[in-house]
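Supplementary Methods S3. Input chains for the assembly prediction are listed below.
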Amino acid sequence: MIDSFYLAMRYLLFYRVRSLTVVACLVLVAALPIGLDRILEESERQLTARAATTPLLVGSKGSSLDLVLNAVYFGGQTPDPISLAEIERIEETDLAYAIPIHSGSFSGGAPIIGTTIDYFEYRELSLAEGRSFAILGESVLGAGVASRLGLRPGDSLVSSPESVFDLAGAYPLKTSVVGVLEPSGTPDDLAVFVDLKTAWIMQGIGHGHQDLTRVQDPTLVIERDLNRVVASAKVVEYQEITESNRDSFHFHGDQSSYPLSAALVVPKDERAATLLLGRFVDGSLDAQLIRPRAVIGELMETIFRIKDILDLAVAIVGTAAMLALVLVFSLSFRLREQELRSNFEIGASRRTTVRLLAAELVLLTGASAVCVMGVLFGLERFCSAIVRGLFVT
Amino acid sequence: MQLVSQRIRRLGLVVLLCTVLSSAASVAQTVVYTVNYPLAYFAERIGGETVSVRFPAPAHVDPAFWMPDLEIIAAYQAADVILLNGAGYARWVGQASLPRRKLVDTSRSFRDAYLPGEEIAGHQHGPAGAHTHGLIAFTTWLDPQQAIAQARSIEVALAMHNAADAPALARRADALVADLEQLDRDLATAFAEFGEEPLLASHPIYAYLARRYGLDLRSFSWEPDLEPGEAGWQALDVLLAETPVSWMLWEATPLDSIGKKLAARGVGVLVYKIVGNRPASGEFLSVMRANVEMLVHAVGRATPLSRIGSRTAPSFSDSKSEGVSRAGREIAALP
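Predicted structure tokens for the full assembly:
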């Protein structure tokens, strides 16, 4: 047998391009469905893990998938806002606490997430450099953002609104970077975090300006009496919060009416979660309370239904590829008829010829199997990073 | 001999284990940060040894206008429970990033009953823009019934943090509430002696006191260590011409010159301390008790009222420990 394998190996090496083509074909046909399956499985695991760590989410009525994608994965469209009163209502039940999420501003292409420092504790995010934000005008960067923009504590970044058409609303606000998070392999790596009040200032709800009760310029004031000063549009609002002007920043109106994109709701236990969900089920409230895991689960089901169709397509293509290979081999044997007759004429028996051809097939199949195992081993080792790279970066 | 040494070794291990366990138990206190002294006092009374109460504002500042540095804000962030007074007290809270789940607004239960405070001009942007209001009166604890509500809120917060200690917390809270109820009765009796005579206040910080005891209180915006100026005295004279008044409440003893000018106008000085910050001597209830005594003596009644567990009687001459001038507030606000 060894002499057959030796001759087969010499033959394949002589026609190496043809051999490599066949091996590549076999590797693709075998590795593609397995690899795709593995990547989808890892994607499901990572997406579901992120959703599973968010027990409940409250947000505006409408697409629950959009709500989850924006509030949990910081992607997609910014949903319609809910008011702070919604989470105050939830907190008053003593069944859960809420972590507000405000999105809609960006900096350097990264979403700016307004929240409270409870968020870092809840997501178990630790700092690689610096500290957490403590006062208005400070920001903490995800590891990916810091790396991409080349920023570290002591630097600054400027916000920009989601819509360039919002000319009468948000002004760019310069914030100080005070901390950088450790890499977490989650969408938190790609976000900029600020205090919720800083996010409101970015949105234009809060602002700072000179003390209108002391201005001398008459063009800054439309009307004045003992109790009230009506300012004109000429009043310039500060675009950076500093030590000297921080005291001037203020908000107008009732804070309970201020907007949030959503809020993570952390119930005390499963019973509390069920009770809370029950309060929202009849649809009479202005918001919806959902389980992100269920929403992502439905998404995954849809994806896997599509995957089933893709699997079928891959199977059909694979079968066609195998049939094509069989045809190629049979045509190859036809083309090698002269060579095979020569073997017979120099004394090789029919059995020897069959052994030679079989050895070629075994070597090709064996080489393909080794390559497939190598590809799958590499995929298994780097699958997590590949999926994170596809979805996170 | 071997048996004895084995027994000694076992005994040593048991002693060591007990020491470790007891020290672990004593270390597991709930760390509570507050924004003013009354809340710190209530938390200490209610929490007892199960809490470690921190109120880091310096003694010479008014906590309502104090701005802590980043290190202190970080300490607040790391607390187990953060007690807020509510009613806009401690402006720094609106500028700092504090963990929402640890915040306890102790006056939330009666926020519908807040009163307007110092009249300052609000502003709005454009004729139709939303506007800011003047301040809300934030010395909520001056009404003992409101102080009781705040104490109960603290009890609930501490019990949620340590359910096993709930019965003991309830007992201590009941004791504090009993003291505050007694204070309420004593203050009602003391103020009743003033009849319907209007009172003056040097600063609009006694709104809740006035409402609780039905006082006709007219407030100015004077500081104990600053002459009010000609305009201030003229405003007082106009008021006195319409309404004779015998007494003016002050958060701290005013300058001698102010006292003399008031005396010349027939207005006596009543130093009613609000105890927003830690007193130089005594504690919250002893200072409030001293306020009661001061009111009683002001109207010439010598009959002592009941004592409320005071440890030392506050000194009326120790007037600079409470109530801070505008200059002091400005100093406190500097970084």
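The mean pLDDT of chain A is 85. Residues 17 and 287 of chain A are 63 Å apart (CA to CA).
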